[in-house]
Design a protein that fits this description.
Radius of gyration of chain A: 14 Å
Strand content of chain A: 15-25%
Order of helices and strands of chain A: EEEEEE
Largest sheet of chain B: 7 strands, mixed
Radius of gyration of chain B: 27 Å
CATH class of the largest domain in chain A: Mainly Beta
Number of helices of chain B: 36
Number of helices of chain A: 0
Helix content of chain A: under 10%
Number of strands of chain A: 6
CATH topology of the largest domain in chain A: Ubiquitin Ligase Nedd4, Chain: W
Distance between the termini of chain A: 16 Å
Oligomer: heterodimer
Structural class of chain B: alpha/beta
Chain lengths: 85, 903
């Protein structure tokens, strides 16, 4: 997992963010630290259905199964449900 | 080695005269410095300096997903549902140290595309983007760190970041979804639908050629369809979001099934109120999402000070999500929230906060009186607000964002002016806004001083002091001129003198209609000003006047592309009068076809993409039940015709009049030949500089020296000489009147708008040499009243006399930029000189003047080593921008501007 998958990561831009725990600037693509806490994203959601193409999938929570993508943040999504296991 | 123009001129006993009224001191002179920002604001500003312009797919994703779910819904309700979904799903991000929170997207300097407006400019590169998205993935710290300085523009791919639209970075893992969302809008966007219907306009082929040859810079209806206007913060301040939702619900019950005497759009009121409620629900959810995030951070925060700040943020947001604000802190936060909501609803540049210091004054006054806050706390908040405004980015095509806006978003805050009763409107809070602007120097919000002789001297001096620090703001705006323009132009829509006094500047320099509304706070009533007009700088965008002259001289054929733009006029141009008449005829043809096609684009926009939230904020939409698309605004005659390169046209006509028609020292054919040969010089693109002084002679290019010398020494605007000034006056009188002959989609007349923004660079690049001696590809004179660099030789007062040879109140604006060496206005006596200079121009009837207080050598140095000048600001046109974030042509132009060594 990377920093940008962490709940404590406040993205400043497409490269870096600030860690809410340390207040330090961190690169989003760097590997997680031991305080890592997963942020809700479609790829961690029970309803996420991977698609045939990279970075694309669909949302199984809706009957119409709309397109979505693994790195969409789900903090505000009412249908987000952590993937089991 | 090729000779530079400056050397050629020197050998002829001429000079470009880039310094006037003396010489610059031998040593480089720094600007006078003001105080420092509060440490918190400085830290937040540093974060901005070190961050990239970043695009996110969240908003477009949720908007499109919801829009697709309701194909049969009433258009305004369908759009409102999509907006609600998008707002309520934005990920809230709060940064340590922030006091004012919320942003456009989930990045510090975030933005996002709106494919429902236009998707073509990045979908054209779909394959390239998709491929890049899949190929990236080898980020390394080394690779990333080299982008640590030099501005936040992402102009090329690196690491896991893809550059999109030439400026924005987007994470590669978002690109496939972004493209899939955009594909949903192909054939449905305002751009695509507008294009389908605008082709039905007779003469559309001319429009196509006008755009290709850069006679006109860009279309209006799908690029930045709103903006250059003044926001109105009043209704949520007075009623709160819940109060407005209740009001709209009550209105819904009143109008349901009731045409109200209007058989065409009366029934629409029901859907409009429903749309207002839906969007307000989205805004409320968005605010509460941030409140929840603040609570989460409060809970996990170890530092007691930061913990308390998160708590206060949460309390503030929880309150304003529902209620009207009670304190200055709550008021400044809700105003910011409204501002971001408006610029997220549509692609917008120039959404100006207007007279924010007068809007917030009630809260300031009562908090100070009650001891709830201190002036220091207020300044700190104002500085934080400056940083937030500076973080606003506008996502649009490279041509629009780079070529026109220079990356700026034009959030113009107006100061001073008069109250509705004609008394000075400035107040203590506005003084603190000036202080915050001088201490925490940032590009946004830029400041405009509504200069009126009634304003107190101490206030005006404070403004002049701020200018001297090199911020470029405030610009001086002639309040009386603006009022005259508003009364003349909006009289038919009911504008009164009282209402005209509410004027504020929208965008960089657009005189905008505003209104007074009664704000009640703890039993005291205040009349606060706010915007009440539709967007301005919409309609016919920038027409290049020197290019129109080129087409006139060459019978309608563009000499850069060798394509026909206008039908051949067939005239021999045997008299000066015939020449000028043909220039006007071609210009009018361009306006005609551009007005018709842009009316269609805006109509498509208002049918499918109408503003709901911005409309709701403006009088009298909530009362009438009609939004912008049904002319619910109080003032709707806001479409304009914009020009660029006025002074190059005037100087060129002056040269032709003198050389060809009066003294007959060269024929028109000889002039044409010299222009095509670029007077024996290389082109600007070949030289790699867009400034006249750097241009280089071709080997053996002496054939045209005589004619070039004559062109360069012909009378020039800016010297109080009637020869050139009479041409300017004739042009202005005709131009300002002719606009009224065209009708906007609101069935209102157009008016003249005379600002160049940054278009004088790309338009200059697309234009061959001009008869004033300007060489091919070099930038035009900036603004509309600035002299061409090096040609104003008789001092500032002579320049003012030339600029005011016509009545500025006939136009929405005019623009004069002056570059002054810091040593010319040093100390308190210098501040007074600067104020007197500005006052003199205002009293002569000039509409606008602004200053670059800088030693040009600093700019040259900054061009060489930009990484040392991340925070260097310059005034470009109606805006201030970081030096490192503007393109080289404009940098060259700012360096070349005449530098006044004495005033």
């Amino acid at each position: 997992m990377k920093h940008l998958d962490c709940r404590n990561y406040a993205p400043v831009d497409v490269v870096k963010g600030i860690c809410h725990l340390t207040k330090d600037a961190v690169l989003g693509d760097e590997e997680q630290c031991d305080k890592f806490e997963k942020v809700p994203k479609c790829k961690f959601c029970e309803n996420y259905m991977p698609g045939g193409k990279e970075h694309l999938g669909s949302c199984g929570a809706e009957p119409s199964k709309p397109m979505t993508y693994p790195d969409l943040v789900g903090v505000t999504c009412g249908q987000f449900s952590w993937k089991k296991g | 080695m090729s000779k530079k123009l400056s050397q050629v001129l020197e050998e002829s006993g001429l000079s470009l005269g880039l310094q006037a009224c003396g010489s610059a001191p031998e040593k480089i002179t720094e600007r006078e410095s003001a105080g420092r920002p509060f440490p918190r604001a400085a830290r937040l500003r540093d974060l901005y300096y070190n961050c990239y312009s970043s695009a996110s797919n969240e908003f477009p994703y949720w908007y499109t997903r919801k829009y697709a779910e309701h194909p049969g819904e009433i258009p305004v309700v369908r759009r409102a549902m999509a907006l609600r979904e998008a707002f309520s799903h934005l990920t809230p991000v709060i940064y340590p140290g922030e006091l004012i929170v919320m942003g456009k997207a989930n990045y510090y300097r975030g933005s996002f595309p709106m494919p429902w407006l236009s998707e073509g400019y990045y979908m054209a590169k779909e394959d390239e983007l998709y491929k890049a998205a899949l190929e990236r993935g080898s980020a390394s710290a080394d690779e990333v760190s080299k982008f640590g300085s030099g501005g936040g523009n992402v102009t090329k791919n690196f690491g896991n970041v893809i550059s999109i639209a030439g400026k924005f970075g987007i994470r590669q893992e978002e690109v496939p979804a972004l493209l899939k969302v955009a594909r949903e809008w192909v054939g449905k966007s305002v751009d695509d639908l507008g294009h389908k219907y605008e082709q039905m306009v007779p003469g559309y082929d001319i429009k196509e050629e006008i755009m290709k040859s850069v006679v006109c810079m860009f279309d209006s209806g799908y690029t930045l369809p709103q903006g250059r206007e003044v926001i109105n913060y009043y209704y949520p301040l007075q009623y709160g979001f819940q109060g407005l939702m209740d009001m709209a619900a009550g209105k819904k019950a009143e109008v349901a099934g009731n045409a109200g005497g209007d058989g065409v759009s009366g029934m629409n009121r029901l859907y409009n109120y429903e749309a207002v409620i839906l969007v307000l629900e989205g805004i409320k959810a968005w605010i509460l999402n941030y409140a929840r995030e603040a609570r989460r951070l409060e809970k996990m925060e170890a530092d007691p000070v930061q913990k308390k700040e998160y708590k206060e943020i949460a309390e503030c947001l929880e309150w304003i999500a529902v209620n009207p604000p009670r304190t200055f802190r709550e008021a400044i936060q809700i105003c910011w929230t409204m501002h971001v909501a408006v610029v997220n609803e549509d692609a917008i540049s120039g959404m100006s906060p207007g007279r924010l210091g007068q809007v917030l004054f009630p809260y300031f006054e009562q908090d100070i009186e009650a001891g709830r806050t201190t002036e220091d706390e207020v300044i700190e908040l104002l500085e934080c607000q400056r940083v937030k405004f500076t973080c606003l980015d506008c996502f649009a095509s490279m041509g629009v964002v780079g070529g026109v806006l220079s990356g700026n978003t034009f959030n113009n805050l107006s100061l001073g002016g008069l109250t509705k009763d004609g008394e000075p409107a400035c107040n203590r809070l506005e003084e603190l806004i000036l202080e915050a602007g001088a201490n925490c120097v940032t590009t946004q919000p830029t400041l405009s001083l509504l200069y009126d002789d009634k304003l107190p001297e101490s206030f005006l001096l404070k403004a002049a002091q701020c200018v001297k620090t090199g911020t470029g703001y405030p610009a001086f705006i002639n309040n009386r001129n603006a009022i005259e323009f508003l009364l003349k132009h909006y009289g038919d829509e009911g504008m009164t003198l009282e209402e005209a006094r509410a004027i504020a500047i929208g965008g960089c320099l657009e005189t905008s209609p505003c209104s007074w509304l009664p704000l009640d706070l703890n039993g005291k009533r205040y009349w606060v000003p706010g915007g009440s007009g539709q967007p301005t700088s919409v309609g016919v965008h920038f027409i290049s006047l020197p290019k129109v002259l080129e087409l006139t001289l060459f019978d309608g054929v563009d000499q850069r592309t060798k394509t026909r733009v206008f039908p051949a006029h067939g005239r021999k141009l045997e008299t000066y009068e015939e020449l000028f008449a043909q220039v006007k005829e071609y210009f009018a043809k361009a306006v005609e076809v551009l007005a018709l096609t842009n009316n269609i684009q805006h109509d498509i926009w208002r049918k499918n993409n109408m503003a709901v939230f911005n409309s709701m904020l403006k009088p009298d939409c909530l009362d009438k039940g009609h939004l912008i698309n049904e002319m619910g605004y109080r003032y709707n005659a806001t479409h304009n015709v914009e020009s660029c390169g006025t002074i190059n046209l005037v100087n060129s006509l002056a040269a032709l009049k003198k050389i060809v028609y009066d003294e007959k020292t060269a024929s028109l054919s000889e002039i044409r030949e010299a222009l095509l040969a670029n007077f024996g010089f290389k082109t600007a693109a070949e030289v790699g500089s867009y400034s006249m002084e750097d241009q280089e002679k071709k080997e053996g290019g002496d054939e045209f020296d005589r004619i070039h010398f004559q062109c360069l020494t012909a009378p020039k605007y800016g010297n109080d000489e009637p020869f050139a000034d009479a041409i300017l006056k004739e042009w202005e009188d005709w131009f300002c009147a002719m606009c009224y002959g065209y009708e906007s989609l609101n069935a209102k007349p157009y008016y003249a708008c005379q600002i160049s923004v940054s278009t004088h660079a790309p338009m200059g690049a697309a234009t061959i040499a001009t008869p004033d001696g300007r060489l091919a590809g070099t930038t035009f004179a900036d603004a509309s009243m600035s002299a061409y660099p090096g040609t104003d030789r008789n001092g500032t007062y002579a320049l003012f006399a030339s600029a005011t040879c016509w009545d500025h109140s006939k136009s929405q604006n005019s623009q004069l930029n002056l570059k002054i060496h810091p040593s010319a206005i040093k100390g308190m006596s210098g501040t007074k000189k600067l104020l007197e200079l500005s006052r003199a121009y205002m009293r002569k009837g000039g509409f606008h003047i602004q200053y670059n207080v800088v030693d040009s050598r600093v700019l040259k140095e900054a061009q060489k080593v930009p990484e040392k000048y991340r925070d260097l600001l310059v005034r470009v046109a109606g805006f201030t921008q970081y030096w490192v974030e503007i393109g080289k042509p404009i940098q060259d132009e700012v360096i070349a501007r005449t530098e006044y060594e004495g005033v």
